[in-house]
Amino acid sequence: MQRKKINVWPYLLISPALIIIFTVVFVPAVNAILMSFQNYDLRRPKSIGFIGLDNYLAVLHDPLFWQSLWKTVQWVVLGVGFQFVFGFGLALLLNKKFFGRGIARSVSLIPWVTPGVLIGLMWRWIYDGNYGVLNDILLKFGIISEKIPFLAQQATAFPAVIVTIIWQGIPFFALMILAGLQGIPGELYDAADVDGANGFQKLFRITIPSLKNIIFITTMLRIIWVANSVDIIFNLTEGGPAYSTQTLSVFVFNKGNSLNLGYASTMSIMLTLVLLLVAILYLKNIFKNQEE
Amino acid sequence: MKKIVVFFLVFTMFVILSAAGFAQSNPVTVTHWYWADNPTYSATMQEMAADFNATNGKNITVVAEEYPWDGGAYSETLFRVVMGGGGPDTSSAKLTSTPLFNANGLLANLDEYIANWQDKDKIEDSLYNTMKDGSGTDSIYLMPWNTQVLYVYYRPSMFKEVGILVPKTYNEFLEACKKLSRDTNGDGVTDVYGFGMRGAKGGHEPWGSFIWARGGNFKDFTSAEAVAGMQDFVDIFKNGYVPPTATMDGYQEIIANFKLGKTAMTVHHIGSSPGMIETFGDDVDAFPFPGGMGQWTSMGDTENVMLESCENKDAAFEWLSYLATGKGQETWCTVTGNVPVSKTVQQLPVFQNSKFMKVSIEGAPFSGIYPILDTTTEWISTIWPNTVAAALMGQITAADAMKQLQTGLYGK
Q1: Residues B155 and B272 in one domain
Q2: In chain B, what residues touch A241 (CB-CB under 8 Å)?
């Protein structure tokens, strides 16, 4: 009986990518899991050792963890929610024919292509309570009578950072949805016109159903990215004042910076578990589409 | 036989001279990390490295690489890089980060180098002792470089406008904060504040003066005296004697507010004086933070360390020596206005004639540092700003804030 010859080329070609993923994703992930079961605090290297579930119990009893988790939920729901709404609106607008549409499409991408660190610094100055342009505009229009220290008080700091992430993410939704809109056959709208459908009916019966998969995938991706994002909050407020803008990823970053890597890893694992639910939905949808 | 002996001697001389010549010309590179508060300081450090490279005569090349101080995150960056197997040969450092580096065996012991150093006596013994205390051992791991004593900058013209004199006591200082907070354009809104409070990272230094002025200290933040100091800090915020942005104001903000005339007083060290003079000319002066039941101000220290991983330790020490007592000491302290550690440099006219240097020296007897524990870095960068912000915004009382600060630093 002749043995089936194995073609090694596919394995050879995929191996560089696998090696990189193994080195920069798998190994650190396993390392983080291992550290979460250890008293891995670099400030006290002599006491590093296995402590079982102590880190997990400590995290669950840490009020700051629960506060940060709740902040993360608000950060994601409001951030991604409004990004989608405004992104959808912008995509519909950019899909219309008007003079200068090409330029408008290009300019609308600026927030998305600007590095997060730069966005943080830029908005920090916009919101500045003494010299910020936002206060200046609001004062000139008579909307406020005194300057507001947007980032220095609890009532306004968190909404301010959410507005910033919304501003950054709108173009991503707009871009993806615009690409989807261009793939919807014009005949569907022509037929709807013949049937006497109005704008809302066309939007909810044709446009949105046609974009279902794009909306789902972009939203899932954005939820994961926004939940993990640190750069904007860190550069705006570093999680303050009084932890009022500290999401879980910022808490992990701060804890990691203070070199308590065991505790930081434990919180990362818990955030990963939460995001895993979103990731499973995302992957299921992808596989479903592939089967179809 | 004679010819053989002569040949042998000549050959030996040749070998020795060649070896010496080789050692002399064998190039050595020392990588040095530092931070700089402004572009002038950056340029100065680069010039110092170039000067050292041109004059050391031992073929040592120093490559000076700048990293941001970032409210103290510099130390964490350095730690991570060195732990990861990289990093420089020498670096600027602070005493507070010594326990962390020492616990991981990252710093080179300088005892032997200093014992054999010809400039050893140019630095006060007390400074060597402070270096030992900071490391928690009987050894020296940090080479003294310069110190900065925090004091209060003020605008004489504003003091004149409201008719007050330089505060001599803590109560007079609090009164000055109140009187200097004014609505100068008549729109009903305060536009000049008495004091530029630093509520963000790094604000623990001026804050400490309030705690001590009421008789408190850093051993027990929960004492009635320490809580009273905290209450003063909260009150000047609530009463509107500091900008409402204070909870998030860091170094850049307090300096900008002072320079733009938004605040009449603020606390910083002599390093800011060149910029202040450039902005205000004679209309800026300074006084030591006044005492009440106690008196304390923060002594900002800057040292240089040699990393244990450094392969050319002799060359690295040459560079550290240049910075501590050589030309580098004079250049850096002249440009930055920092207090030199070299007794010889301290005697130079440029330091003897500076009014800000005089205030620094006046504050030196009651200046000090925070307890150096393995929790100090996290306490400074995260716990202090967030806890104090909560107290300033009225979420927690001054007493609760002090309990949290005590637990954060001492764990109990």
Answers
A1: yes
A2: 199, 247-248, 385-386, 389-390, 392-393
Report d(CA A226, CA A232) in Å as an integer. 10
Beta carbons of B104 and A242 less than 8 Å apart: no
Cβ of residue B325 closer than 8 Å to a chain A Cβ: no
Tokens of B252: 């850049």
Task: List CB contacts (< 8 A) between B386 and chain A.
Answer: 239-243
Per residue of chain B (412 residues), what is the pLDDT tens digit? 566 656 666 665 555 545 444 444 589 999 999 999 889 999 999 999 999 999 999 999 999 999 998 877 898 899 989 998 999 999 999 888 888 898 889 999 999 999 999 999 999 887 888 888 778 788 999 999 998 889 999 999 999 999 999 999 999 999 999 999 999 988 888 999 999 999 999 999 999 999 999 999 999 999 999 999 999 999 999 999 999 999 999 998 999 999 999 999 999 998 888 889 999 999 999 999 999 999 999 988 899 999 999 999 999 999 999 999 999 999 999 888 888 889 898 888 888 888 898 898 788 888 888 888 888 888 998 999 999 999 999 999 999 999 999 999 998 6
Number of domains in chain B: 2
ipTM score: 0.84
Q: Is A19 helix (H, G, I), strand (E, B) or coil?
A: helix
Q: Which of A35, A140, A144, A238 to mutate to test the interface with B (most CBs of B within 10 A)?
A: A238
Q: List the domain range (segments joined by +) for residue B102.
A: 30-148+301-359
Cβ of residue B374 closer than 8 Å to a chain A Cβ: yes
The verdict on pTM exceeding 0.90 is no
Name the CA dihedral angle for B84, B89, B93, B95, rounded to a multiple of 10 degrees. Answer: 80
- Give the integer Cα–Cα distance in Å for A71 and A107: 31
Domain ranges of chain A: 63-291
* Percent helix, percent strand, percent coil in chain A, to nearest 5: 75, 0, 25
CATH number, domain A63-291: 1.10.3720.10
